[in-house]
Design brief:
GO cellular component, one term: cytoplasm
Helix content: 55-70%
Pfam families: GH3
Shape: globular
GO molecular function: acid-amino acid ligase activity
Largest sheet: none
Radius of gyration: 13 Å
InterPro entries: GH3
Number of strands: 0
Number of helices: 6
Distance between the termini: 36 Å
Number of domains: 1
Order of helices and strands: HHHHHH
């Protein structure tokens, strides 16, 4: 279980708290940590205009997140352009949640 899903699995996050997250619930409850990180990045980049902070339970999570962002940057940009997550994301609920997030009206940059 990814650290981001523990509060949700344990019932310690209210719907009000969840509405502050840029990723859909399906991403946070996913079982593949690499797929979760990819989807968190994709949703965060898509919703850059409402992001005002990043949280992680441990500092190493932030280090891994930035390394992941650097290594997957081109793929993330391509997937943002086409509006769909990578086909490597095999969890159908996670894919659907991300597609719905990416499908929202894009702000003018």
């Amino acid at each position: 279980m990814a650290a981001s899903s523990y509060p949700l699995q344990s019932g310690k996050v209210s719907s009000t708290q969840h509405s502050r997250f840029s990723s859909p619930l399906q991403v946070m409850l996913g079982s593949n940590v690499d797929h979760q990180m990819y989807c968190h990045h994709l949703c965060g980049l898509r919703n850059f205009d409402v992001i005002d902070g990043i949280s992680t339970p441990y500092a190493i999570g932030l280090i891994k997140a930035f390394g992941f962002l650097e290594s997957k940057w081109e793929q993330l940009c391509d997937d943002l352009d086409c509006g769909y997550p990578s086909y490597e994301i095999s969890d159908l609920e996670m894919r659907e949640g991300v597609i719905n997030t990416l499908d929202a009206v894009l702000p003018k940059i």
